[in-house]
Amino acid sequence: MSKWHEPSDDCLICRGSQEVVIGVRERGPYEQLHDYTRVLFCAACDVGELRTFSYDGFVVFGEEDDVMVWSSVLSASDVSRLRSDFACPSPLNHECECAQHIRAYDTSVKANKTRLPEYGPGRHSPAGRTTVTVRVTDGLAEFC
Prior knowledge:
By secondary structure, the protein is of the alpha+beta class.
């Protein structure tokens, strides 16, 4: 993967480094493909984020962007809930196929997220970003 397409997990508000709290799912990085869904937390801003990143090097010019990012804000209390109630002993293992990781992925796909530009000043703006919450259903954390 070229450096131009490497994802950034920097905070969308302060541009600082964020902690990866949950590795929900990831494919790659491969030369022509990399996508992931992660829960991130910025201690400086005391805010979390549900982020989905997609790089598709097979996109035909003009069809869609080859790099796309979707983001939704998570409150610090929801990040704490994930830390304590995520029912998998390996929350960073994005390859895990346990019931908890599957539920997290399935509900993250349905969660309302804002599509952001991967590059440029619009990427670092909290304006208009959606918010998602976390609840525990049948012992599994999920996004709603």
